Amino acid sequence: MIASAPNRPTACLALADGTLFYGIGFGATGETTAELCFNTAMTGYQEIMTDPSYAGQVVTFTFPHIGNTGVTPEDDETADPVAAGMVVKWMPTTPSNWRSAGPLGDWLATRGRIAIGGVDTRRLTRAIRQAGAPHVALAHNPDGEFDVEALVAKARAFAGLEGMDLAREVTCAQSYRWDEMRWAWPDGYTRQEAPKHKVVAIDYGAKRNILRCLASAGCDVTVLPATATTADVLSHNPDGVFLSNGPGDPAATGAYAVPMIQGVLNQTTLPVFGICLGHQMLALALGAQTVKMNHGHHGANHPVKDHDTNKVEITSMNHGFAVDAQSLPDGIIETHTSLFDGSNCGIRMKDRPVFSVQHHPEASPGPQDSFYLFERFAEAMAARA
Ligand SMILES: NC(=O)CC[C@H](N)C(=O)O
C-alpha cells in the first residue's frame, strides 16, 4: 500500500508493532532500520549522535528543543555520526551559534543520517518504557509517499542488537597514539606535565572524550583495534589497560575481547579499567553474565551510588545491556549501583586494581562527578610503579 499521509509529512517512523509516527524529515533521505531508544539529556545531542555506542540505534530525544545550538567539530565523539537516526519533537530551524558548521539537518545529511521532527516524543517514549526498545524503520522521502506495510515489515525483520557484534564496525582500522594536542580540552583542563603512565586503550567504539580524559589524568595513550590480542596489548609494554565503551551486545563482542582480557589478567598484574561495554566485557571475562535491559539507560542525570565512599554521583548513561550483579563470582565486588533501578554500575576485583563502571565518567554530555575514576586508574598505575 502506498499511503500519502495528511499534510504531506516527509518522514515516517514505523514500529515493528505497526504503530506509525509521521513528521517532517531532515538530514539525509532514504531509509534505515534499527532499535529505538530514548535519551533524556537536555544538552549534548551532537556528542550523543556521534557516540559510537549508538551504532544500530535510532535515538529519540525527550528534550523537545534539539538543535538550538549548532554543531562544532570540537564536540564530535568520533568522525561521523554513528547513531542510525534521530527523532525530535521540534525541528531545529536556526542554530544560535557555531553556524559555520551549518544547521543540524545539513550536518546529518552530509553524514548520511536520517532525522524526523514534529513527532509526539512523549507518546513514543511511553511506548518504549512500556513495551521495551522497539525495532523500527525510519524513512525520509521529500515526496511524502511511504509504503508503510513494507516499512513495518522491515522493522520486524531487523535482527535486534542481541547477539550483534558492532565493535568490529566502529573500531579504528589501525593502532594509533592519542594526539592530545589535537583534541585538547579548553584551557585549564589540558594536562600541563609530561605523561606518567603508558596506557593501551582498546577501541570498541571509544568516545574521544574518554581518551582526552585519560590523557588529562596523566596517561600516554596508545589505541588498539577491538580485535587486539593479549600479545598485541603486551607488546606495547603498558602500565595499564583500558577497555572502552562501544555498541552492540557484550556477549557477542566478548567472543574475541574476553580471551584478550583474560590473557591480560592471567599473565600480568596490570591495572585494568573499563567503561560501559568495557565494563560489561570485563565482567564476562571475570565469569559474570550480562543481560538485555527493557529500555536501557540513556541520559545525563542518572544517580549512582559509589559503595566505597558512600557518595552519590550524577552520571551520564548509555547502555541497553547490563551486568547481572547476582552472577558476580566470589572475589568480585559490586562497587556502584544505579539508584534508579538497582542495576549494577560498577565492579572491582577484591585484591587487584582491576575495575570498571557502567556509566560514563567522561560525561560528554553530562555532569563530571565521576571524573575521579580516571584519577583512580592513574593512582593504581602509580602505586604499581
Ligand atoms: N555505551 C556503551 O558502551 C554501551 C554498551 C552496550 N552496547 C550496551 O548497550 O549496553
TrEMBL record:
InterPro entries: Anth_synth/Amidotransfase (IPR050472), CarbamoylP_synth_ssu (IPR006274), CarbamoylP_synth_ssu_N (IPR002474), CarbP_synth_ssu_N_sf (IPR036480), Class_I_gatase-like (IPR029062), CPSase_GATase1 (IPR035686), GATASE (IPR017926)
Keywords: Amino-acid biosynthesis, Arginine biosynthesis, ATP-binding, Glutamine amidotransferase, Ligase, Nucleotide-binding, Pyrimidine biosynthesis
Record's catalysed reaction(s): hydrogencarbonate + L-glutamine + 2 ATP + H2O = carbamoyl phosphate + L-glutamate + 2 ADP + phosphate + 2 H(+); L-glutamine + H2O = L-glutamate + NH4(+)
Record-linked SMART domains: CPSase_sm_chain
The keyword Nucleotide-binding belongs to this UniProt entry's keyword annotation: yes
Pfam families: CPSase_sm_chain, GATase
Residue ranges of the TM segments: none
Family per similarity comment: Belongs to the CarA family.
Matches recorded under NCBIfam families: CPSaseIIsmall, PRK12838.1
Residue ranges occupied by any Carbamoyl-phosphate synthase small subunit N-terminal domain in the UniProt entry: 9-139
Location of the region described as CPSase in the Swiss-Prot/TrEMBL record: 1-189
Alphabetized CDD domains for the sequence: GATase1_CPSase
Gene Ontology MF terms: ATP binding; carbamoyl-phosphate synthase (glutamine-hydrolyzing) activity; glutaminase activity
Positions annotated as active site in the UniProt record: C276, H360, E362
Residues bound to L-glutamine: S53, G246, G248, L277, Q280, N318, G320, F321
Pathway(s) the chain acts in: Amino-acid biosynthesis; L-arginine biosynthesis; carbamoyl phosphate from bicarbonate: step 1/1; Pyrimidine metabolism; UMP biosynthesis via de novo pathway; (S)-dihydroorotate from bicarbonate: step 1/3
Top-level taxon of origin: Bacteria
Function: Small subunit of the glutamine-dependent carbamoyl phosphate synthetase (CPSase). CPSase catalyzes the formation of carbamoyl phosphate from the ammonia moiety of glutamine, carbonate, and phosphate donated by ATP, constituting the first step of 2 biosynthetic pathways, one leading to arginine and/or urea and the other to pyrimidine nucleotides. The small subunit (glutamine amidotransferase) binds and cleaves glutamine to supply the large subunit with the substrate ammonia.
EC number: 6.3.5.5
Source organism: Ascidiaceihabitans donghaensis
Protein name in the entry: Carbamoyl phosphate synthase small chain
Gene3D superfamilies hit by this protein: 3.40.50.880, Carbamoyl-phosphate synthase small subunit, N-terminal domain
GO biological process: 'de novo' pyrimidine nucleobase biosynthetic process; 'de novo' UMP biosynthetic process; glutamine metabolic process; L-arginine biosynthetic process
